[in-house]
Amino acid sequence: MALNTRPVAASMNDTNYHGGMIDNLNKGVGALPEPISPAQTQGLGWRLLDEEISLPAAVLYDGVMQQNLQWMQSFVTQYGVKLAPHGKTTMAPKLFARQLAGGAWGITLATAQQTRVAYAHGVRRVIMANQLVGKRNMEIIGQLIADADFEFFCLVDNVDGIDQLGRFYSERGQTLQVLLELGAAGGRTGVRDAAQQDAVLAALARWPEALQLAGVEIYEGVLKQEAEIRAFLQRAVTVLTELAGAGQIKRTPALLSGAGSAWYDVVAEEFAPARIGMPLDVVLRPGCYLTHDVGIYKTAQAQIEIRNPIAHQMRTSLKPALQLWAYVQSIPEADKAIIGLGKRDAAFDAGFPTPAQIYCPGDALPQDVPAHWQITGMMDQHAYLQIAPGDEIKVGDMLAFDISHPCLTFDKWRQVLVLDERYQVVDIVQTYF
Amino acid sequence: MALNTRPVAASMNDTNYHGGMIDNLNKGVGALPEPISPAQTQGLGWRLLDEEISLPAAVLYDGVMQQNLQWMQSFVTQYGVKLAPHGKTTMAPKLFARQLAGGAWGITLATAQQTRVAYAHGVRRVIMANQLVGKRNMEIIGQLIADADFEFFCLVDNVDGIDQLGRFYSERGQTLQVLLELGAAGGRTGVRDAAQQDAVLAALARWPEALQLAGVEIYEGVLKQEAEIRAFLQRAVTVLTELAGAGQIKRTPALLSGAGSAWYDVVAEEFAPARIGMPLDVVLRPGCYLTHDVGIYKTAQAQIEIRNPIAHQMRTSLKPALQLWAYVQSIPEADKAIIGLGKRDAAFDAGFPTPAQIYCPGDALPQDVPAHWQITGMMDQHAYLQIAPGDEIKVGDMLAFDISHPCLTFDKWRQVLVLDERYQVVDIVQTYF
């Protein structure tokens, strides 16, 4: 089993890497007479404000993203905990590489396919924060963990699943590192009580070669109140301490992991001081900090910066780094503009996109939009923008939208353009959903 | 300007076709030691029931899809109208090719990028049922219409947009065919009244070489009541008759087009008998019939089969051809199973996926699920399945889900597996979102 702790490298030149060309059949790009590889995206020279991009397009602001990356790394460093950002948010290997280069300990992922994508792009430590189920999925992971330089963890919370994993990896003579997932009543996955936990531990004991318990994992995001979240986190520390004391943890350091993007501060406060009687890696897994948003995660982050002393004293904050640009397509009524942006382009499950700036081609720079403009509805390929009669807006103007819920925006795009401060494209980030 | 009416061919070997390899970084596929091209997907031998596919996966049932295709073609043939199915639903060139081979007159699309994808795969007649806005988007279409064998139409409904198009294509010495879009008060795009219509016609008159009016287009799906829809359709016939009488229609036959997937029968009834004083092509544009669903379009189709005499007398009906397969991942509470299927995999804006069948690996065939099972919530990568204590279900079982709203399911998948009646993969359909 790989317990390799060498710095994790993320290379685009991994020999397992296949495909991934960017061609002119993609939406939201500029002119591409020939397909290019992800490594050839420097120097394209596309300028957004010169209408050299086919809109709608998704863009990341390079400098903002880099600030967000540093903010979170600084936060976890001050708590002495490790960061394995949830890669399912972006599924963008170039962003994984930035996160790892910025100090992340590993990448968190949700499925076997996502894990394979990360591995193929050089990621060498993955927490798959999910149960691993199904023959083909087990084969995928089996191929990856055959590389002794690749460290992998997945979750277990039930007997049938453990026996299926144990049988599969026993037959292959392989060893899989697993984390006991604790769950909350009414929540998602994870053992609810001592009886379920005992059954899981008994099942693990049947497969001592194939399955090695490395620690404890929770996802606190299914709970809504700080007090119940803290109690849940304290339960995780207690369980891990007992398991460590009983010699059941086979990895040193043991792993203790939690945290989505809304409560990572509370997880850091509860987990960082834990003393379990053996060396411990505390690993946080927020996914949305890199791009942030102006919706659910802006709200959550504001709470964090109020309640957490370290976040409170940091001089900067997370800022939205992901926007969508689209054209005004029709203004059929005096108070209604139709925008060429739809459910095909943006998340809509946690609030509609928010108009931020307007740009009339030929002008010097985009301007902030009036505060009363808002999206009131979306169809597959259109958005309804509420305006007021007489507002300065016309067909052919370009609008920039902030978003809520980056995860479900990223998965609408096969590539996202990275812009500098002058709105010039400096890179293209591919996604693998 | 191309008014070519030769049979439209859809070839995967078009010389403009780039990229599109299928590799093992994709979700929902089987083992792929090497990347394959879309033409190499025959004979893969993957069997869904033998767990040779990494789930979750999206699948199309070949025979059902073929029946749906024939049903709609038979319907439009009986009305003597033409079919340009909305390709934005699937964005799958292999399905476009099936629709064209089955008798479709062209393909409808929503954006310049979608049009380019269709062209690159051999489609040679496209209605872009949208305004064409923005320099780069105009360039894309300009490149395509340079091919005299490619016939293209887009919509106009406002003066600024027309002047932008006129200036752009005048400078290139090209001619663009446009359709006047009529709209309804409170609806989406389209001219609302005679004043807007007159302004549009005056703007078109400024660009007689660059812009040629080919007919009238409406989208009735923004209205909800049959009576107002019929009135809207009758207005379209009246306007087109007046334009034809005034010699303003530059294409022969003139084009009259409407119909989403919910009211195509009413559109056929109103448009088919239209006599406008010149030859006329009536073109319907439903997009969802090929896969159908068990949600919004099942409900709409049931209404059609009640109210429309031709649909009523047809011996078959549309059937759902698209399903998602996923594993039971955890059963943490007696009445709750967690499924490895989330908002990343399925539409959720018009009802959650509906559990249809369950399969325990090793059994002979899938079984229908109990009627009381239902999805009660979805997260990015998980679904909550309500069950009853004691139900026969365990971790590792495979579940098939029907869906509501195929458009927002297709765009979650870069390829969809085509299955025969024995659940064997016979083809892979790629999407280009």
From TrEMBL, chains A, B:
<dbReference type="InterPro" id="IPR042208">
    <property type="entry name" value="D-ser_dehydrat-like_sf"/>
</dbReference>
<dbReference type="InterPro" id="IPR026956">
    <property type="entry name" value="D-ser_dehydrat-like_dom"/>
</dbReference>
<dbReference type="InterPro" id="IPR029066">
    <property type="entry name" value="PLP-binding_barrel"/>
</dbReference>
<protein>
    <submittedName>
        <fullName>D-threonine aldolase</fullName>
        <ecNumber>4.1.2.42</ecNumber>
    </submittedName>
</protein>
<dbReference type="Pfam" id="PF01168">
    <property type="entry name" value="Ala_racemase_N"/>
</dbReference>
<dbReference type="InterPro" id="IPR001608">
    <property type="entry name" value="Ala_racemase_N"/>
</dbReference>
<dbReference type="GO" id="GO:0043876">
    <property type="term" value="F:D-threonine aldolase activity"/>
</dbReference>
<feature type="domain" description="D-serine dehydratase-like">
    <location>
        <begin position="321"/>
        <end position="420"/>
    </location>
</feature>
<dbReference type="Pfam" id="PF14031">
    <property type="entry name" value="D-ser_dehydrat"/>
</dbReference>
<comment type="similarity">
    <text>Belongs to the DSD1 family.</text>
</comment>
<keyword id="KW-0456">Lyase</keyword>
<dbReference type="InterPro" id="IPR051466">
    <property type="entry name" value="D-amino_acid_metab_enzyme"/>
</dbReference>
